[in-house]
Fold this protein.
Amino acid sequence: MSHDWVITIFVVVAAVAIVVQTGILFVLYKAMRESSTRIEGIAGRIEKQASPVLTTAQAILEDAQPKLAEITTNLVESTATMREHVAQVGEATTEIVERVRMQAVRLDEFVTSAANKLESTSEILQTTVLSPMRRVRAIVQALSAGLNFLRAHRAQKKAGATEVEDEEMFI
């Protein structure tokens, strides 16, 4: 009997556990059903609110697609044009730089030539004009000094004669 009693307790405990599990599963079912109903309601509201936005976004994309294609085409054409112009500017810059270099060489040659000619002219002027002018000037200074000496000597003679006359008159 003890063995039957254990089995009976075990069956009762098992039956109670099954009933409790069934209750828990029923509660979970109800909670899931309520959650599902709420989520379906929220999804319905989101769909109602998002539907116009999605429709507008689709319309914008459909409207923008040809414009984007045109913008892309224009961008490609502009890039090609810019590359062409940059290449032309590069060529022009290279040509300008080369011309400036040639002009700098010419200017250097001109300045060197002018300096050489100026030096030659200075030497010629020195030897043909200034040297004879210095000689003439030296001669003129010598003559001037001689004339000054003679004038000074005459003035002394006159001064000496005047003193002698003054002394003779004084006596």
Summary: The chain has one helix and no strands. The helical segments are 2-170.
